[in-house]
Amino acid sequence: MTTDRHDQPRPETTGSPGGTGPHPRPAPRTGVWLVGARGSVATTAAAGWAAVTAGLHPPTGMVTETAPFAGCGLPSLADLVVGGHDTSDCPLPKRAEALAEGGVLPHGLPAAVHAELAAVDAAIRPGGPQPGDGRTDEELIDAFAADLDAFTAGRGLDRTVVVNVATTEPAPAPGGDRLPPSALYAAAALRAGCPYVNFTPSAGLHHPALADAAARSGLPHAGRDGKTGQTLLRSVLAPMFLHRALRVRAWSGTNLLGGGDGAALADPAAAAAKNAGKARALADTLGSVPEGEVHIDDVPALGDWKTAWDHIAFDGFLGTRMVLQTIWQGCDSALAAPLVLDLARLTAAAHAAGLSGPLPELAFFFKDPDPGAAPDLPGQWRDLLSLADRLREGA
């Protein structure tokens, strides 16, 4: 692939051959602004978006590319424009090469989509706050919002959806006088009039200081913490025990992972923020959290790969004690990236349809979804299909 999709002119879609008929405007373009744009998830999403758009790979794992979402008014993959914020200065093509060496991206893909990755990299702005940055929260929010405004206006976009895929933060301390970085970016999204998705367990738009601004904004938003592996499986298994009237006595888990997430989650405060969503998936379905804990161990040698074990102790008829054990081995970046693209497209369509406020119908994608969401995966899938129907009616 050798062309820069971001800057090439957009031909009009229809019009009479003789030039006397109407000439509709080009298809609307949608920005996808990734906070943490040079991280593993964002790099995989950008490379995958370019590869699928070019027909180099099928859209495996992308829910929005399946039949139930046809005709919903979703922006096409070809009409997405990607940019973002990051504190890293490693060029995106180089990050993609490193992911290919680790087996996350197919061999040869970074070279095949080098032009597209370079165009995305050119749209990435410096994030913050960096060590020694003396700007106030208001100054940082203004700067981030200005970046969003410039991206949207400079590329002629109809709207830009901000998706947080940055490294997990510790939960903010009560009474702190500064917003955490995730909340600064979320506040900037509101200020720039951008729908917002939090794919991480960090505070983001859930910070109490942003509650009023979010309610006044009239913008759709969704989150938090993408459901990609262990919790996805829990949201399937927990209803099975509930509906079969089997009493779960204990549910313990262990995660072994490396990469940036492994290093970040070695911090007990960050791990606690991550585990809160895992516990909620059980509590919402079973009515309480069973005995047992989830442990997260940083194993740098694993890179972007993760192994998750679950040990479930339950009682059957006449108190017969039984055990179910599961092992999940996968690549978080490859599991998360298609969901990031799905969420950006669905949230953009919701914004275009005039929807505002939290989108509990997107709970299918999250460990810790917005209030009003169904607790189980089948119920969340039905709600997602209902949202698709609403979008289709307004498309």
From TrEMBL:
Residue ranges annotated for the Myo-inositol-1-phosphate synthase GAPDH-like domain, each copy included: 229-333
Family classification: Belongs to the myo-inositol 1-phosphate synthase family.
Pfam families reported for this sequence: Inos-1-P_synth, NAD_binding_5
InterPro entries: Myo-inos-1-P_Synthase, Myo-inos-1-P_Synthase_GAPDH, NAD(P)-bd_dom_sf
Composition-biased stretches (Basic and acidic residues): 1-10
Signal peptide start-end: none
UniProt superkingdom: Bacteria
Protein name: Inositol-3-phosphate synthase
Annotated region described as Disordered, given as residue ranges: 1-30
